[in-house]
């Protein structure tokens, strides 16, 4: 726990959180972060358990006091209304989303439903809940409601694609989403912004770069490469492999979101990034080197022999990079992990958690994999 968290622990009122998408990759890391750092807070996780949600990610919290898991859809208004009321929620941390660009190209419908309609449903339900609280409190309304927050967790992809010479994305970079995924996230960001400006609802938006770490679903670049190396399967690098992403260890992201909930200003946007721009092909080489070092029984060694350039992703954004000056200067957050250190920790986690990822390579997953890599 950091010094500032220890300070908050002493002085703060307990929060009552609804964490949507808490059984997914970042959401489950965040739930663990919050439960460890704020054991007196009430944590309610709402997750539909889609293919990307996994109850196992939260298994160790099942018996915990102050913790509740609810399987349900963020588009289900009566369910959200009831949960906010009966749990007296004052903080929503909204992670639930369809999150994979390749799936959004194959089938955008679910992205519009969850990311746009689901976010609208949550915002509108939380607005009524917050307004009702104001009416119940009468004269004390502003004091009692000052703690309310709606954290909308979003992505740097809403800003579009950078060339190699462009300045990294700032909070004022115009939106230019290029995939159905990023367009749906952009729509949800606009709704969160509008609810602050129109109703005064205390929403905060964060736009973060690529995360990696434990509990990352196998379809994404880093876990996909790790798992394929362990299985001796080709490592599919899209296009020329020169696309750039700004990688952030998931624990650093969770810490940033903690700081934003506790110290961020309603109505503001904060960009979060790792200051770690890496070309895809260089990242894949780093993963291969670490695997060669850490995994004794690789089916193909050196792992680099498996690298295969495949057909590019349609509309593939060339470069993402985040300028995280605002969150550093205003809220004091900086990432702690380097890509080298974070990758080593992540690979060690995948090596010791075969029982976590093996069941995820289901028939449904294989069917998806065959579709995306069919023409590879
Ligand atoms: P993920 O796909 O691993 O998890 C998404 C979770 O949401 C799953 O548990 C799923 O079951 C749940 N979910 C999906 N639809 C739902 C619905 N209709 N109702 C309730 N639950 C539903 O995603 P992630 O990578 O952990 O991303 C979490 C959030 O962070 C997303 O909003 C994403 O846009 C954002 N984000 C992700 C990254 C990244 O690198 N992964 C970077 C920046 C921002
Ligand atoms: O930037 C934040 C975003 O990062 C999040 O909003 C998304 O939810 C998250 O999925 C991630 O999106 P990307 O498309 O950048 O991540 P992905 O892991 O799918 O791909 C990373 C890069 O690697 C990208 O340039 C595409 C490339 N790639 C990916 C896969 C799965 C490959 O070359 N081969 C692959 O097989």
Output the keywords.
single chain; 376 residues; alpha/beta; Rossmann fold; 7-stranded parallel beta sheet; two-stranded parallel sheet; 13 strands; globular; binds nicotinamide-adenine-dinucleotide
Topology:
Elements: H1 3-11, E1 16-20, H2 25-37, E2 42-47, E3 67-71, H3 77-86, E4 91-94, H4 101-106, H5 109-137, H6 141-145, E5 149-155, H7 180-199, E6 203-208, E7 211-212, H8 221-231, E8 235-238, E9 244-246, E10 248-249, H9 250-263, E11 269-272, E12 277-279, H10 280-294, E13 307-310, H11 325-331, H12 339-352, H13 354-357, H14 363-372
Parallel strand pairs: 1-2, 1-4, 2-3, 4-5, 5-6, 6-11, 7-10, 8-13
Antiparallel strand pairs: 9-12
Helix pairs in contact: 2-9, 3-5, 5-7, 8-10, 10-12
Determine and state the CATH class of the domain at 7-212 and 248-275 and 319-337. Answer: Alpha Beta
Query: How many DSSP H or I helices?
Result: 14
Instruction: Give the amount of beta strand, in percent.
Output: 5-15%
Query: Which hetero ligands occur in this complex?
Result: nicotinamide-adenine-dinucleotide, 2'deoxy-thymidine-5'-diphospho-alpha-D-glucose
Radius of gyration: 20 Å
> What structural category do the secondary elements indicate?
alpha/beta
Please summarize what this structure is:
This protein is α/β, with parallel strands linked by helices and 376 residues long.
